[in-house]
Design goal:
The chain has 297 residues and is of the alpha+beta class. It is built from 6 helices and 18 strands. The strands form 4 sheets. The protein has a 6-stranded antiparallel sheet with strand order 2-1-11-10-7-8, with helices on one face. Strands 4-3-5-6-9 form a 5-stranded mixed sheet, with no helix packed on it. The protein is globular. The two termini are 18 Å apart.
Length: 297
């Protein structure tokens, strides 16, 4: 199982490339993924061209092998901010679609290699920036579902509520089968696509009151209040089948994707969120030992 360390948000000083005096409009790029010391860093955008790439001479430097030395640039024509790919090896993406050149809009997510930026524009970018910083404390930047930190808080609250009122509670813990093979065979950008698309597929199945979160790496959890073991097994099997039946394509190549799922249900007034997670994790290991692409609970 892939482990995943939660990083504290680190706010760092920004490069001052502001608009000339009198110009009301403000634009900025904020790094929203991956977790680490650069998470939450903001680059204010002015009238000059901004270069993005692996080489240290760029305005925004991303020192990763998946990023070309001169990967992309952002230009401004006085009205519109334009992102242009510089014939990079792995391409530039906006909101999940590969682009050559595109006019940016408020809230667009720009993916360069494994790094994701969010484009903020408006007369009050500072407030939007602080809202984005808060959002990063509860939302995973890659998949746009809740993160481990948020889930851990919710499962403890739900467990305490279920114990207090003698109500059922279940969780599903799942991960993508042979995910390392996907990364090794098709590349890490393809792996990111699989996690993003799978999250969208499963999110459509999540009902009000339930919680779907990325627990770390290729591992995900679903919190099911008011759900007995039988209902959790039915739900888990539906999710497993849904993923197995879906088509995952990256740059014209179909990637086979399945998931394994472990189920844990509240059984004692001494149960905590931690014990529920521990049992679900053990059963996930069983599912993988049983040949993967199955449910154990």
């Amino acid at each position: 199982m892939t482990s995943y360390d939660e990083h504290e948000l680190t706010l760092v000083s920004t490069k001052d490339i502001s608009f000339p005096p009198g110009e009301a409009r403000q634009d900025a790029l904020v790094q929203i993924y991956p977790p680490g010391p650069q998470l939450g860093k903001k680059w204010e955008l002015g009238t000059s061209e901004i270069s993005i790439g692996r080489d240290a001479s760029n305005d925004i430097v991303i020192p990763k092998n998946a990023v070309s030395r001169k990967h992309a640039k952002v230009t401004f024509d006085g009205m519109t901010r334009i992102l242009t790919d510089l014939q990079s090896t792995n391409g530039s993406y906006v909101n999940g679609s590969q682009i050559n050149s595109i006019a940016l809009r408020q809230g667009d997510q720009i993916k360069i290699g494994g790094t994701i930026f969010k484009y903020l524009v408006g007369s009050d970018v500072e407030n939007a920036y602080h809202e984005e910083i808060y959002r990063m404390t509860i939302i995973d930047g890659l998949t746009n579902i809740h993160n481990k930190r948020f889930f851990l808080g919710e499962i403890e609250r739900e467990t305490a509520r279920a114990v207090r009122h003698s109500r059922p509670l279940s969780i599903l813990m799942m991960d993508v089968d042979k995910f390392k093979n996907i990364n090794d065979t098709y590349g890490h950008l393809a792996g990111d696509m699989v996690l993003q698309q799978m999250s969208k597929i499963i999110s459509k199945r999540i009902r009000s009151g339930e919680l779907f979160a990325r627990y770390g790496g290729e591992e995900f959890v679903i919190l099911l209040p008011e759900t007995e073991t039988s209902g959790a097994k039915l739900f888990a099997e539906q999710v497993r089948q849904l993923v197995a039946a879906s088509e995952f394509r990256f740059e014209g190549v179909t990637i086979p994707v399945t998931i394994s799922i472990g189920i844990s249900t509240l059984v004692s007034e001494n149960d905590t969120g931690e014990t529920l997670i521990g049992r679900a994790d053990e059963r996930l290991y069983e599912a993988k030992a049983n040949g993967r692409n199955c449910v154990v609970g």
